[in-house]
Amino acid sequence: MSDSAAHSPLWWAAPTAPGAVDASVTVPGSKSVTNRALVLAAHSAEPGWVRRPLRSRDTVLMAEALRAMGVQIDETVNPDGGEAWRIIPAGLYGPATVDVGNAGTVMRFLPPVAALADGPVRFEGDARAYERPLHGVIDALRGLGARIDDEGRGSLPLTVYGAGSLTGGAVDVDASSSSQFVSALLLSGPRFNKGLELRHTGDALPSVPHIRMTVDMLRKAGARVDAPEDGGTRNVWRVTPGALLGRDLTVEPDLSNAAPFLAAALVTGGRVTVPGWPRRTTQPGDALREIFTRMGGRCELGDQGLTFRGTGRIRGITADLRDVGELTPVIAAVAALAEDASHLSGIAHLRLHETDRLAALAKELGSLGCDVTETADGLRIRPRPLRGGEFHTYDDHRLATAAAVLGLAVPGVWVENVATTAKTLPDFPALWTAMLGDTPAVAEGDATGGSAAADGRAAGPAAGRG
Ligand SMILES: O=C(O)C1=C[C@@H](OP(=O)(O)O)[C@@H](O)[C@H](O)C1
Ligand SMILES: C=C(OP(=O)(O)O)C(=O)O
């Protein structure tokens, strides 16, 4: 690694695994559930509770934005521990300024809310937020009766001139670049005078489980929603206008953020339990049970949560990840440590995430020695012996957690700006080292079951033995 990296606090030395991990990891709440719950609570006709919310950059930005439009959010503590946010809805108003950071949920879910406010709401954010697509929300809102000044860009920054209500009705949206266009409009749909009939008109829709999460949470808040998967019309969602109930909702652990911890079990041939893993959920991270089983582990879902075990082998995978795109960086890291090649497809839209994730993964995995090629809609990963080095993260939380997974097996991986994990998982470095701290070091000569961390696929000394 370069001298600059060695001496800069911006670089984090990813710890190698001392042996097969054996830990229980309490994963903080889901970003996607927390931010939907906040929006729905703000639209409700009565106060509600969001218990065990995720407190991270994306969710604090959401809470601050709603407060700026007049919603009261009181932060209290649950009798049995953890946070409980009391949401007291009020008439939404401007002028207000919203900082979206680089949160897709904030930049997409809130313009429809602002269209219902009384007064102008200005949206600003990180430089990357200005490059991420928003046209689906802007064009649709205009079609539904809103006035928006985006200076002709079809993206941020912009001002929504809320008129206190919105006509609503039928609208066509091309959501092939982000499912969040659909979720954004559905979440505010019950508050539109005519409700909403949204038709997706573009190519294949990504992240469909996230749309199911939106529909499920709307229904639990009392909304009437017809969705394609319930025998409705293909690519059409209908939301009936009506008041929403105040809910008392407890946020599930973020299953997508469980990915690096489950990967640690797979990569080290160890065992990780995630307490509170729901038996039924709309979270896309639930697919990790199947994906990581196909990659060589096995899992057990019970009252204790999910226990995932590595078996000592890591297999490559051919998988269409369109539904679960946000899992890609960690899956790609595991694939780089596998015994054979992987092909990840269906994820062209990842080029428009926090960074161009396909380009970033190809470049950074490549710089550690892996043979990676970008395809039109994914990655082909052919594992090679890896070496340590700098892993750039491009302000992308999931690039940083993916790098940590590689570091378990590859000594000398330096992760740029690990603090970027605060977008959705602020305690990541502490959780990671605690997981490893619980892991008994392996004595010289002990077997860890032939995991990548132990059998020399990672160049240099195997984890914990150098
Ligand atoms: O609605 C949501 O909470 C999300 C939807 C997905 O967005 P895209 O459809 O843009 O991939 C996902 O990647 C993102 O992390 C969260
Ligand atoms: C794509 C992601 O986030 P966002 O909500 O900003 O789109 C993500 O968390 O992987």
Given this structure, which CATH class of the largest domain is correct?
Answer: Alpha Beta
Helix content: 25-40%
Distance N terminus to C terminus?
17 Å
Distinct ligand kinds: shikimate-3-phosphate, phosphoenolpyruvate
Counting structural domains, the number is 2
Total strands: the figure is 23
Please compute the radius of gyration using only Cα atoms. 22 Å
User: How confident is the prediction overall: mean pLDDT?
Assistant: 93
For the report, how would you describe the main beta sheet?
4 strands, mixed
Strand residue content: 15-25%
Q: Please work out how many helical segments DSSP would assign.
A: 13
CATH architecture of the largest domain: Alpha-beta prism
Identify low-pLDDT runs.
Answer: 443-451, 453-466
SSE-based structural type: alpha/beta
Would you give the CATH topology of the largest domain?
A: UDP-n-acetylglucosamine1-carboxyvinyl-transferase, Chain
Could you state the CATH homologous superfamily of the largest domain? Enolpyruvate transferase domain
Strand order in the largest sheet: 2-15-17-16
Brief characterization of the structure:
This protein is α/β, with parallel strands linked by helices and 466 residues long. Helices cover 29% and strands 21% of the residues. The model is unreliable at 443-451 and 453-466 (pLDDT under 50).
